[in-house]
Specification:
This protein is α+β, with helices and mostly antiparallel strands. The chain contains 2 helices and 4 strands, in the order αββββα. The strands form 2 sheets. The protein has a two-stranded antiparallel ribbon. A two-stranded antiparallel ribbon has the order 3-4. A hairpin with a 2-residue loop joins strand 3 and strand 4. The longest helix is centred in the first third of the chain and has 22 residues.
């Protein structure tokens, strides 16, 4: 009987610790992100990295992840 109570107590403590860790975690959960909905991704023409559409740099209607890659691709 004592062993069963000890196991239950340990399980409750483990669940509470897990919940506290999740509650105070620095990483936001996907449902807590700013916009709340997924964003389309574009592929950089120069390096192939996928970038959120709101962050893509468009030069001559071509997507780039940064100004450096846009400049390098133009030469």
């Amino acid at each position: 009987m004592f062993l069963i109570r000890l196991i239950i107590l340990l399980a409750v403590v483990a669940v509470l610790l897990w919940l506290l860790k999740r509650l105070f975690s620095a990483d936001p959960e996907p449902e807590q992100l700013e916009s709340g909905k997924p964003e389309n991704m574009r592929q950089c023409k120069y390096c192939g990295v996928h970038v959120p559409e709101s962050s893509v740099l468009s030069v001559n209607n071509e997507p780039y992840c940064c100004q450096e890659h846009a400049d390098l691709d133009q030469h």
